[in-house]
Amino acid sequence: MMGTDSGGTSRVGQDRVEPLRSRMRIDLVEQEHANDAVKSIYSRFEDSGLGVYNVMKLWANDPAFLAGFESMLNALYADDTLEARYRELAWLRTSQINSCHY
Q: What are the two backbone dihedrals, phi and then psi, of residue 41, each rounded to the nearest 5 degrees?
């Protein structure tokens, strides 16, 4: 039986504990290993106050995909038809419906 404890480890069987990160199949692109295009996108995320989440680091394996995500975010946040709090509420509800933890 496999479960997760609060320390970020996964319990495998009764006597073996394996870190969750060691089971990841796709590497995350960290700032220090990113190419210039990805570093630039990361900087814009950070400057906007959004930050760089692991899912963004995953998408950075395909810089064009990450750039597309950035364009989508910019389009969503540029339109201020809805107040910011309602846009955030829509994001939160969509995440709940899809069981997304981000």
A: -65, -45
